[in-house]
Design goal:
single chain, 429 residues, alpha+beta, five-stranded mixed β-sheet, 14 helices, globular, binds magnesium ion
Length: 429
Amino acid sequence: VSSTSSELPRRLALVDVNNFYCSCEAVFNPKLRGKPLVVLSNNDGCVVSRSAEAKALGIKMAQPWHLVSKEAKAAGTLALSSNYTLYGDMSARVMKILGDLAPEQEIYSIDESFLDLTGIPYLVPHGHLIRSRVRQWTGLTVCVGVASTKTRAKLANEIAKKRAEHGGVFCIEDLAAADERSLLRGLPVNDVWGIGPRLHAQLQALGIHTTLDLKTAPAKRIREHFNVVVERIVDELNGTPCLQLESPEPRKQIVSSRSFGRAVTGEWELREAVISYVSSAAEKLRDQGSLARGLQVFVQTNVFKPDQPQYAKSLTVKLPQATDDTLTLARFAVAALRQIYREGFQYKKAGIMLFDLGPAETRQQGLFDDTPRTERRTRLNSTMDRANQRFGRGAVALAGAGIRKGWGMNRAMLSPPYTTSFEHLPEVS
Ligand SMILES: [Mg+2]
């Protein structure tokens, strides 16, 4: 009568690429290997990825590069602009390999994936298979943490990453109870997934310092002081699953916005930027099979330069019909920009948002629709998307988006798009 006897113990893996952006760069540029390396955020602002050697030098995540660059360079640190074309493509390759090695997969972030490995008999060897295949097929190194819940798998992954003796794969469920206790006693409570700085401080005030303290905290005490989120974390730490593998939801809005590499004053440059942003947002819209009914355009001056005249304005447009057509969206965006643009300001940022999204199957015919024209547009958009996928972003673009894009991001230290452009294929000599 009971079905539980035949149920296999639930086993989830969290697989995570080590130092993802830096590692992607080092795959294609051997000179970077073994060196302190950092990758910088948009406009070369802050450190967003560090090689092991850069971490060892004490360079911190999110540190503004201009504050540390002198010292870091003196110590031999190399810096690169972020190459999202490369990272996005490498991420897709890793995720495909992981998906092929597990019955179920959740892509959690650009370099992290949960896998459901329930029923796979030799989990640690399977973890090593995952590791060696990713390594062989992409050149990237992953760590694999296995456990009965997502929260425990995150912890197991931390151990796999930090303790070299495990060879990058660690299953926390293989530990005897006493060994698990002593392991968790050595892990500060803010190592637990979901415990941010605010919760950390609150927990410490209650005398909860280690992961073991949190795991063994009386449920009543937790309920008294915290909301259900912390309760669930405690349950998950104790092996009671509260979080399931999730499949990606289509986005409810698509935002495309960037800070300019330099101040922009003329409307024509803002127009180029807005058309560029609309083009990439419309491509994402079509990719997830949605249509947009609403569009917002915004512009702003540099809030970090309070001595300059400040201006920020946005305008929301309700589209007459839901659409995914780049040309139509660009036309409305440009008209909106014309209404909010004011002369005499130094603009630092512009952006667009597509919202009120619905599935493309619900596309409605308008009374005055020119159907053959709509169909031509659909073909044009999908041809542009295919060309840009094949030959690299921006291979085909609206002329209005600009050619030279003098307002573009500062990415002075950008590596080539090695994997998405025939022109930039790595050469072996
Ligand atoms: Mg990572």
